[in-house]
Amino acid sequence: MTDDPTELPTGGGDPLGVGRMQDVEDIRRAYMKMVRVADIGRHFETPVPAEFNQPYTVTETDWTGMSRPPQGKYLNRKRNLRRAMNRIQLFMPELLGGAPKRIFELSTAHGAILEVLRHYGHEVMGNDYVNMVSGDTPEQRAIYRRANDPGFVRDKDDYGLPIPSGDQIVDWPYRPIIDSIGIPMALFDAGRTPYPLEAQSFDYVLSMQAIEHYCHPQDWMTIVDEMCRIARQGVFLLLNPMMPEMTADPVYAQAFHKARADLRDFDRHGFRCVGCHLHWGQALGFKLMRL
Q1: Gap between the Cα atoms of 94 and 120, Å rounded
Q2: Which domains are seen in the chain, by residue range?
Q3: What pLDDT shows up at residue 170?
């Protein structure tokens, strides 16, 4: 089946194929609803800890100095933790038990992944930075920059937060939530390597739907190599699907799919890809383990 309405057959009483195009749009909407339910629905009967039902202890004034808070759905702690539980059970079930590990997550955002892992006894540390996804021109958007690009400079992020010279930020969009749940943080720009972390200082290093914010996919392997430098045992990456504007950019799209293939075939630094996971109907999750 095609999702391009221009390729649909026409005929009968609908020579322009409008009815068929509507069918495809209905199917697309139904599919998107299904994958959203799969993302936050319960896949196992694992009990959800009672404390996970408590909301974040934040108020609107906690975002003073920002142009806006994060999206409303990411302020829902119960939803965030339910989705995090799903992802750990599906992608890293070995972390639901066993000996405690040291785990580092790039771009922690609301911290739900680390909250769940901390509940299971692991020592966790997060990372975040100001948000630089939007911009008036491609040159202002981190998603198009090269890793370690010395020419990429911004004064403020997407939330109106200042970016001081030297990149030593003091505030970031999810800071009120992270403060409320007490996750220790290392604040640095993940698009610039090397990271200020010692080699093999964590057992696992994670990046969940975030690497797209760091740099162009041509340089994603630079980021993955750095994650492997820090990790003793495992690395897990979950990519976002490409947004329509990236799909329409042949250079970006080609680099995106090459990066996925490189992750699937990853075999260096003592790490090998041991799992490719479907997410939103695409192979977007990649598990690298030291073998």
Answers
A1: 11
A2: 41-290 (3.40.50.150)
A3: 82
